[in-house]
Design a protein that fits this description.
The protein has 350 residues and is α+β, with helices and mostly antiparallel strands. Helix content is 60%, strand content 14%. It folds into two domains: 167 residues, no CATH class; 177 residues, 2-Layer Sandwich (Heat Shock Protein 90), CATH 3.30.565.10. It has a five-stranded mixed beta sheet, with helices on one face. Strands 1-2 form a two-stranded antiparallel sheet.
Length: 350
């Protein structure tokens, strides 16, 4: 749950805009300047910095924002303690390098002065560990304050969003017209004693079972979603009493990979609903799951029937659910080329 909320946080910035964040930084630096350089605020007595205090302050600022903008963002993109300690260590090395460069090289060239006249490597590294700690702590503290505000704010937003999305999702799990038409078709099959009636009942049972039970889960096995798609295709064939020509290609390295329900099937439903299908113009469906990457492509010829949004849960709802479950780890492309409709979905499952 923590990782899920963390991913959502990375998508939304809430009321703390970039301008407000810059203002917070400005106030933060005013406070640091005040407690560093003001000795007596009543008499306006300021501490006069020397050359190496200025160089330290420059290194302080550079390391502060290196840690704030790069390290903390990388660490919390996929948080674990090893990444945190590694990030802190990298910031320490950056601080040490910048300090050596500025106080032992640049000042030597410009002012013929160095801060350390006799450098012992171990002592120098330990000394900079002490000096860099304040930079890293203050940078981490500010990042955590802004992060916590955004996270707390979005916790409330995501609860409301999930509730609204769930309502839309449950309402649109299956098209009632599809069920009614299928039942009428099954009735006709039974009445005329068609040998396809039992198959149609079985496929409708699979679909209703999936809709009733599997769709309530946060994640299901990939094979379950594929079985649902196959049942839907077969039922369409039986319902229309003709072959709904579908070229289904599967290359699943791990069929037990877990995905949210109804992530793939809406694209298939849309193709079956709006596609012009024949032996020469099949619906092309290609699903690959290799090395933790899911690639799903659906292509169909556009029919003459009335177009609307994606069947099932709808395109907007699908995109919203993809953003919630796979923020910055998915890509959905919908293209129309002449009389062809193509949907391509890529998801990084790692």
């Amino acid at each position: 749950m923590y990782i899920f909320v963390l991913k959502i946080y990375q998508m939304y910035k809430g009321t703390i805009t970039k301008k407000l964040e810059c203002l917070i930084h400005l106030i933060y630096w005013v406070l640091i300047f005040y407690f560093t350089f003001v000795k007596n605020p009543i008499s306006a007595h300021f501490f006069t910095p020397d050359l190496f205090l200025w160089t330290y302050f420059i290194v302080f600022v550079l390391t502060f924002y290196f840690h704030y903008l790069i390290v903390m963002k990388k660490v919390f993109k996929a948080f674990n303690w090893k990444r945190l300690f590694a990030g802190v260590f990298v910031s320490y090395l950056v601080f040490t390098f910048l300090r050596f460069l500025s106080e032992q090289v640049i000042t030597k060239i410009l002012f013929d002065k160095v801060n350390y006249t006799d450098i012992n490597f171990l002592n120098y590294m330990l000394d900079n560990m002490q000096y860099s700690s304040m930079t890293i702590i203050l940078s981490s503290f500010l990042w955590f304050v802004i992060y916590s505000i955004r996270l707390l704010e979005y916790n409330q937003i995501i609860l409301e969003e999930n509730k609204n999305t769930e309502i839309k999702f449950l309402k649109a799990q299956i098209n009632p017209h599809f069920v009614f038409n299928t039942l009428n078709n099954i009735y006709s099959m039974v009445y005329f004693q068609s040998d396809k009636s039992l198959t149609a009942i079985d496929k409708l049972s699979q679909i209703m079972r999936f809709t009733t039970y599997e769709s309530q889960k946060e994640k299901i096995r990939l094979s379950d979603e594929v079985d649902y798609i196959k049942a839907y295709i077969k039922l369409e064939e039986l319902r229309h009493q003709e072959n709904v020509v579908v070229d289904l290609k599967l290359e699943l390295e791990n069929e037990f990979e877990e995905i949210p329900p109804y992530i793939l099937s809406p694209l298939v439903e849309n193709a079956l609903k709006h596609g012009a299908v024949s032996n020469t113009k099949p619906i092309e469906i290609d699903l690959k799951v290799l090395s933790g990457k899911l690639t799903f492509k659906v292509k169909n010829t556009i029919g003459t029937q009335k177009k609307d949004s994606l069947g099932g849960i709808g395109l907007d709802n699908l995109q919203k659910r993809l953003e919630i479950h796979y923020p910055e780890k998915h890509q959905l492309k919908i293209t129309k080329e002449e009389n062809h409709f193509r949907a391509e979905l890529e998801i990084d499952l790692k």
